[in-house]
């Protein structure tokens, strides 16, 4: 075993830290939130330029063929600088679904790699709770040799900045769940966008008699469930790595703050009760990174083992993220409650990550059932 | 020991409940139910105070000669509990519970005549100007200076976290009038007209999109010397009196009781009421809240206890603030992925998409706001320091 980064991973991380450190400052973040798409277009073009959007796409399909570990290394850097651009949605989840699709999707993958295309998964339906294995009420019916899509999706993360929605749906007369690609601008598609707590965007999306051609079915119903599960696990790994990066930033931010902030004539970091809080945060963050590595090691395992590992890691990382962000806020006193200090941004980002693609409760249940 | 509830309270509770039900406007109730505590409440606060003023019920806890009603501590408990349970707005707290008692206890006759009726009638909002950028927990070292110049003070300095300062007509400030003595001895309690020249207020954007907290900059602000309350140099004593005055409110017992019930309602709405994991979380919180209520009752009934009163007050604050966290965390978790949405834009608040159940908007904003429970009014760490010192002499 070797836990040290490869030369290539070191380079990837260095360039990511350099680029993101310069651009993704707190001021940038606060200003960029007003962008309705939730995407900094210039930065997204740079992500493509730097090869990040091609990272996980197989070489045979025109990508860089990077490993899940490479993707996680980059994700930690994104999380550390609170980048909410839809890397996980597009370059991990979306790219994986296309890479596993029926037929040749090299054009779509090239568009993702080049930064021209962003995609968002539209899975949740009203009244659901992380129902990734449940049949979809959203339906595709056949009219002659055309397909027609009807249904209602909720909380499609990153949808407002996406040109294509990857929609899970039942196909008339077939068992299973298909994944169909739908142009966000197609007639009959109505997206109602809104901001999430971390400044990213999501949408509820209604599909009303949306005409599709047969090519739109990128994953057939027989394989949909399995591919969706893989894609979600990968996206979850990216989010867990982002959370680890964010937590590590919290440690930096808090250790600097308690050294600088003075009360009662001394830095508050001199109070032992705060030293112990910092120590607890350190312990939790260390465990979180270990949990992430455990999941990475199982990322290519057979589905049951992979899912169990991802869920165990999710419990560890997400619980750690709550401890770190809550205590980090507490250490800042009133300043932690403001939008003007970085810690509250980590708090909100970690809160969103905890709830995306399965919260702690969801993963506890998945482990219990495994 | 007699642990039976006082029979006479049953009829009193009925009367209060009926009055609130009659008086509380439906739109105000709906606003408070969803967004109480996280959006500007000044309008509702003043409106509700004025409505209650018609019954003479705005300052029941004050001495009778200043408009109080002579209710027993248990009656006052029931009165506040019923208001909170009904989602009535909180009546202007800084006036009725903070500066009011200081004025009627230590103020001049002119100050009493000028300010007490306005507080009773809900004429305007008060701001509490204690904390400074460099002095939060260590309040005694505050630096805002007031220098006597003939018949006025010239005030210079900066305050922060001054709730609702931007909309307040008056503020009560702790200022340093004597820099030569021990820090606690050089502080005075000054009432300042917030419209005075030299005052600039900036609203601070917060974690939940709310911006009720402010920074207040004081630049050569002239304040008539008659606005000093009591003795110069006694401000620290008055501030302690004010903070000690209501030892049980820091438990947020009514909030905690109501919000546990709300969590149960949300569990039902989310189809999780029979889920053992959720049931266990709720049961634990209910156990803690009921014990906290009894802790509050012990204090209210004036129990003669072996430990220092201030240490016991910190027990209420520590437990209450932790429950404020835990209960709103549970509410957030019950929403699942729906908890990620920021209900920020006014339009969202009024008209969320029909797909969104009405128990969702406002809950996460409130949960974010509740993180402050372990920060304001003495942080969790400071409370524990107090317990260690006063209960054990450590
Ligand atoms: C929502 C809200 C409303 C408020 N409203 C008002 C208001 O209307 N008027 C007003 O004057 N003020 C108000 N405050 C200010 C509040 O009283 C202060 O935030 C509080 O006193 C803490 O001070 P601080 O923020 O400077 O934190 P600090 O004192 O800087 O604390 C930072 C960290 O250090 C820790 N710490 C400090 N001293 C010690 C110690 N001795 N031992 C161990 N740990 C320690 C704290 O626990 C905290 O974790 C409000 C605050 C909030 C959050």
TrEMBL record, chain A:
Originating organism: Sphingomonas tagetis
Residue intervals of the Acyl-CoA dehydrogenase/oxidase C-terminal domain: 223-369
The Acyl-CoA dehydrogenase/oxidase N-terminal domain, residue ranges: 7-81
SUPFAM superfamilies: Acyl-CoA dehydrogenase C-terminal domain-like (SSF47203), Acyl-CoA dehydrogenase NM domain-like (SSF56645)
PANTHER family: ACYL-COA DEHYDROGENASE, ACYL-COA DEHYDROGENASE FADE28
GO molecular function: acyl-CoA dehydrogenase activity; flavin adenine dinucleotide binding
Keywords: FAD, Flavoprotein, Oxidoreductase
A Pfam family annotated for this UniProt entry: Acyl-CoA_dh_N
Obligatory cofactor(s): FAD
Listed name of the protein: Acyl-CoA/acyl-ACP dehydrogenase
Keyword Flavoprotein: yes
Family, per entry: Belongs to the acyl-CoA dehydrogenase family.
TrEMBL record, chain B:
Name of the featured protein: Acyl-CoA dehydrogenase family protein
Record has Flavoprotein as a keyword: yes
Keyword set, alphabetical order: FAD, Flavoprotein, Oxidoreductase
Keyword Flavoprotein in record: yes
Superkingdom: Bacteria
Homology family: Belongs to the acyl-CoA dehydrogenase family.
Signal peptide: none
CC cofactor: FAD
Ranges where the Acyl-CoA dehydrogenase/oxidase C-terminal domain occurs: 233-389
